[in-house]
Amino acid sequence: MAQISPRLARTYFAEIAAGSAVPLDPDDLLHMMQLRQHGHVVIGDMALRCYKHKSKWTYDERDIRRAAQVFVNILLDLDDIVEFQLPPYRDRDEEDPEQRGRADWRGSIASWMYWSARHKHRLERPAEEWNEDSWHRIGPGGLPGELTWEEFTADYRGRRRNIASTRPLELMTRSGGRLFLPSAYVELLDRWEQVTEELVDRARICSRCRAQGPRWGAWRTPSSGGYLTLCPPCAGATFQKYAGHLRGVLYESARTRSIRADEYLCRLCADARAAVWDHCHDHGFVRGPLCGSCNTYEGKSTARSFLQDKEGAALHLLECRGCLERRTLPARYHAAVARMHLEATERHRVRSRQCRREPWFEGVELAHGEYRFELSCWWHKAEWTKAVTEAETSALVRDFVDQAFRAAQPATVVPAPRAAADTTARA
Description:
Layout: E1 3-4, H1 6-16, H2 28-31, H3 35-38, E2 40-43, E3 46-49, E4 51-53, E5 56-60, H4 61-73, E6 81-84, H5 105-123, H6 149-155, E7 173-175, E8 178-182, H7 183-203, E9 220-223, E10 226-229, H8 232-238, H9 254-257, E11 276-279, E12 286-290, H10 292-300, H11 303-309, H12 313-317, H13 321-326, H14 334-345, E13 349-350, E14 353-354, E15 360-367, E16 370-377, E17 382-389, H15 390-408
Antiparallel strand pairs: 1-5, 2-3, 4-5, 6-8, 7-8, 9-10, 11-12, 13-14, 15-16, 16-17
């Protein structure tokens, strides 16, 4: 089996399938969006397995060439078309969690249209005139709200919108308020739904006890050969719980390098096998083992999102001995703490009273020893700037740290800072 990189796979696929009658988007071979969920990239109705080889993801070259040739051989009669209906709009909170995210090509196209209709509705009128019940009603033209076909196609021109690695909008036609696609293409998308759901169903099953897990790969844990599916009890029985034995140890120490992180459960989610030793970039101390998902979330999400949405985030950051003893967080989190404080306290005045709505934060910059936040209120068309000095921010961070400890362990006493010479643990 010849293993090839995602970039080479994309090149081969694009060259071989260049004459396909179906508009293709082979960039999915690079992005591997559903890798964690089921370990494949589905192009049309073909599931291309992704392999992990020497810590890098690869494809079987034969699979790529075979899939590309299938698209070359597809016959697409543009005169043989069928009508398809847009499903009604459903708010995310109304959806069954078990149905959320299912492979649904009609729902995907509808969501693009609803988004455009909502954007048009809000763009053309002030906030006080927004009517959330109007833009998702299907109008006489077959599109939601006041959206026109020309506006919809223009809105998505140049955007990367694909289903099953194909571009449906290039094949879609409209007549008399009705939407049409070639029948052979509709059959292809129907098969894509079936293949994708079969992959998801298989990948949800715990490889040990055969229990069924959630749809989005929460039980999927990385390994040297790809992803394994293990339920929390089986993962807990397989991997060790981290007990803080590397607390105060430098990430670059020989001791850290001698212990494998993937022998432990993730310290944050406590469900998946860890993949890396997470560490504080400000002070260099180990914080604990994290799975690939949690590690990516800590490093690439916004600081505010990590602190607010990830349970135990603040206590995990304080596993760094340097942060703990100084009652602080890494520098990249300081502006987020100041913003969270302003979200709770900052309100502009409307005539003689104070606006009750939380302001919208347009941006922040650090200049001349203070964080300058640009705020606005859509309802009153107000814009203003609020400055928080670095000293004030440091005090807010200390309060945030103390509150995190009190919320988690009421009896915990945060240790007082030690002498600087005592802050480097030896391996």
